[in-house]
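Entry 12.
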Amino acid sequence: MAKKKPNTKSAKEPEKMINPSTGTEGSPVSIPETATEESLEKTVKKKLVALYRLQTIDFNIDKLRSVRGELPLEVQDLEDEIAGLETRVEKFNNEIKDLQTEISNKKIAAQESLELIKKYEAQQMNVRNNREYDSLSKEIEYQTLEAQLAEKKMKEFALEVEGKNDLVKQVEEELAERKQDLEAKKAELNDIVAETEKDENVLLEKSEEQRATLEARLLNAYQRIRENARNGLAVVPVERDACGGCFNKIPPQRHLDIRLHKKIIVCEYCGRILVDDEIVKMVQED
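Predicted 3D structure (tokens):
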């Protein structure tokens, strides 16, 4: 009876699988749906906490800066007004220079006409006929009119220069007053800034650190909402079932979505990001 040949081939090894939860080889592990939801909730909650923490820091910075009131705007307005007055003075001075140049030109023209008159009068003494005499008489009459016109223009230009000088004097007096006002406002603003600068720098540093924890897309959205909001609030809590930014009522289903933390919810009226009491409490306890 023939002997059975021993099987030299090793038994077929079980096929290796990729564990979808770790990305490594091994038997697959099933992930319960509840575990995925919990992970999603934690991720979204973490983002909401980071956003609301950033909003709290930025709000405190705005609060410090609000102590300055309208002073920064007043300083800017005064600086703009001073720049405008300085431009007016420069413009008037340039116009005065142009008028003085015109006066000099007219003075030269009048002098030239007077010299021509003297020349023609001397030539009249040596004319040979009436025709030459009449021609020279017309030239003398013409140059006399030119000299008179030049004198008239010189007087007009001189009056204009006088008027421009008066305007320059008025504007310079106003300019000096505005510069004094600016110095006073700047001193007042510097005193306020000095009082709050230390706290503001600490908050600015915290704000930068918090921004670094947020992804660029989310940070850009936050910044865009914040710039469009009058009070600078981009992330607001739900208070009495209403948006903490525009105070419009939030539907119950929407309110439930906010509490579940499965996605970032924005107010359908004002576009602000909404957070619930739990997020607020977590940030306050930090």
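Annotation: Residues 130-212 form the longest helix (83 residues). The beta strands are 235-239, 242-243, 273-275.
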